[in-house]
Design a protein that fits this description.
The chain is α+β, with helices and mostly antiparallel strands and 652 residues long. It comes from Arabis alpina (Alpine rock-cress).
Length: 652
């Protein structure tokens, strides 16, 4: 498929200074210097044509001249096509008529021809022969001699992960970006879109090219000097070359890696560790950011017999409307940038906060062990991928526990799979937690008078809480290829909601119902003025940072006059139903079974406060939920239509 480009030249131009670092306490004390990288990066580029020795063999008179490239041992013994002999007059005539010297057709040059190659010998009047090189090829060699070259694999350029790359999240000017560390790249690169979006300055430089495999050279476009890139606690200040990239926003290459000195790498586990001053820094990759080229074997399995297909990469797209909707007001941008670490990808285990999830079993309960389910091939591959991701992130480990629960994959709306452990058997013998869960209606009643709103969504909220060490074995699960256990709170445990709500209430207790509402991992900040709101947002972000909780920037909204929260639209005018939910109720087809009816009544019941006499209207349908009572009659259909009409009148 795609291979890393072979190193052919070094580079000393285009801002090739070494990066500088800040880490931990060094942030306060200033930047740490580093020596300039040595080795291939500082070798001057020499002309390729001048360094390509060739030897001619054979009898020219017999027309069987053969040419070899002494630099490549793989070519020894491989004979090139025979020479075509032309007189000087014939050469000039072909050039005047625009004919290809290989196939005699018009419209392209010899270097662009796809036909079998012939080398051209010009036969002089005295019988001597000289090889003719097309003027276009001569110019290419000259350009190579005067152009500095940076190198980058095509895989990295389009964002595909290779065995010796690491992908992780970082920030530049407070904006979260995807960073790839690639030892196959000679320099640091940054996406042109990021340069434009963040307003980075690209300084014009002497001409240089970015060389990928296959000899493809992309023209360089200046250099961004002293770009400050944050990787968690590590701050790197280094030059970056702007380039059109794929799913990676920035690439750290040998230019940066060479400045680190001794470094420990575990490419399989996506871990890099090195010293900055007297402090050891460890960087962990995020496997969920990686995409890999499909093998030919896998491709053929995916295609139907005699079918056709293309390999494409899907990236997240955002419309202009969505971008405007998510735009952050300028007055809040500074506060968000100040707490950029809150929006990073969590790495490793969460800290011990004094609130860990406990699994207390009923007296006399035996270890629960349920055999794993059978999975189709596509799900087995997905399970292996997700387990590998969690192992690399450190949130699960291999287990020898007597407990075991099976795993389910549940399809999300976007087509991806959600990893769920079926803890029903374990939950049956678990002592319940009676911690109160807030009532949504009561929460929304607190919003009277508020006109400015911000919404925060925590990133993988459950996984930000540890399981008590003695209860870790009880979380064990089995797949078709292994036995593992969770070190963080997994989804599906009976008391998980209570544990999470308890932690959030303890964190925000002094601010609850004053300017903060918390419903599990959904946080709403509400204020009566913009000045108040600025202070409130700062307090909430500071609280999250103090407790090392992380938010998902893509799902957060700031400084809105209207926001969707818990299925309602909240604004200064009050609380209304979500229009999309109202449309879903109105368009709901007549239920054909108890499950469909229960879904309809569950959705309408969520908005029952907006419909006077909801219980009386829905009572005939509720009776059909009883065992063996479902029968869709004309009376049921009439009630169904009446309830839909009532739901169409709710404010939205």
């Amino acid at each position: 498929m795609m291979n890393t480009a072979k190193k052919v030249a070094g580079w000393t131009g285009v801002g090739a200074q070494a990066p500088r670092y800040q880490s931990g306490e060094a942030n306060r004390g200033g930047r740490m210097g580093s020596s300039k990288p040595s080795g291939p990066l500082t070798k001057p580029l020499t002309g390729l044509a001048a360094t390509k020795p060739t030897t001619t063999f054979g009898n020219n008179k017999g027309g069987n001249t053969q040419r070899f490239d002494n630099r490549n041992p793989n070519q020894s013994g491989r004979v090139k096509p025979p020479f075509r002999k032309l007189t000087a007059a014939e050469v000039e005539w072909r050039k005047a008529n625009g004919l290809c010297f290989r196939c005699d057709e018009k419209g392209h040059s010899r270097s662009q021809c796809t036909q079998k190659e012939f080398s051209v010998l010009i036969v002089q009047d005295d019988g001597s022969e000289t090889e003719w090189v097309e003027e276009e090829e001569e110019n290419e060699e000259v350009n190579r001699r005067v152009t500095e070259v940076a190198e980058l694999s095509l895989n990295s350029m389009v964002g595909i992960s290779s065995p010796r790359t690491v992908k992780l999240r970082g920030t530049i000017r407070g904006e979260s970006i995807v960073v790839m560390i690639d030892n196959g790249a000679s320099h640091n690169f940054i996406s042109e879109k990021v340069v434009t979006r963040l307003g980075l300055t690209a300084i014009d430089t002497t001409s240089y090219g970015v060389l990928t495999e296959g000899g493809i050279t992309v023209q360089g476009r200046g250099v961004c000097k002293d770009v400050e890139l944050c990787l968690r606690d590590l701050v790197i200040v280094a030059p970056f070359l702007p380039l059109e990239l794929g799913s990676a926003d920035a690439i750290l290459g040998i230019q940066w890696l060479a400045s680190l000195g001794d470094m420990k790498c575990n490419w399989k586990l996506q871990k890099l560790s090195f010293m900055v001053g007297e402090k050891e820094v460890e960087l962990r990759g995020d496997p969920s950011l990686c995409c890999s080229p499909i093998s030919m074997k896998g491709l053929w399995k995916a295609l139907d017999r005699e079918g056709q297909g293309v390999i494409i990469e899907f990236g997240g797209l955002q419309t202009e409307g969505q971008r405007r909707e998510r735009a952050v007001p300028g007055v809040l941008q500074g506060v968000i940038s100040e707490f950029a670490s809150v929006f990073e990808e969590p790495q490793g285990l969460p800290p011990c906060r004094g609130k860990e999830h406990a699994i207390v079993l009923e007296t006399g309960a035996s270890p629960v062990s349920v055999r794993p389910f059978r999975y189709p091939q596509v799900q087995r591959e997905e399970l292996e991928k997700q387990v590998a991701t969690m192992l690399a992130a450190g949130i699960i480990k291999e287990s020898t526990s007597p407990f075991s629960s099976p795993v389910l994959l549940v399809k999300k709306k976007d087509g991806s799979w959600r990893f769920c452990v079926d803890y029903r058997a374990l939950n049956k013998v678990t002592v319940g937690d009676s911690y109160p869960i807030p009532m949504i209606d009561q929460l929304l009643d607190e919003l009277h008078g508020a006109i400015v709103f911000s919404k925060l969504d925590l990133r993988a909220g459950y996984h930000q809480i540890r399981v008590k060490a003695e209860d870790v074995p009880k979380t064990a699960f089995r797949t078709h290829d292994g036995h593992y256990e969770f070190l963080v709170m997994p989804f599906g445990l009976t008391n998980a909601l209570a544990t999470f709500q308890s932690l959030m209430n303890d964190m925000f207790r002094q601010f609850l119902r004053r300017f903060v509402l918390v419903f599990f991992d959904d946080i709403l900040i509400y204020s009566k003025t913009e000045a108040e709101h600025l202070a409130h947002v700062r307090i909430v972000l500071q609280t999250l940072a103090d407790h090392q909780l992380y938010a998902n920037a893509k799902k957060c909204e700031f400084g809105k006059s209207e926001v969707e929260y818990l299925g309602h639209v909240i604004s200064g005018r009050g609380v209304a139903a979500d229009p999309t939910k109202v449309k879903a109720m109105v368009d709901w087809p007549p239920p054909k079974n108890v499950k469909a009816l229960r879904g309809f009544l569950g959705l309408t019941g969520y908005y029952r406060k907006f419909v006077k006499g909801y219980g009386g209207i829905a009572r005939p349908l509720t009776a059909l939920l009883k065992k063996d009572q479902f029968k869709w009659s004309p009376t049921a259909e009439a009630t169904f239509q009446t309830l839909k009409a009532a739901m169409s009148t709710v404010p939205c």
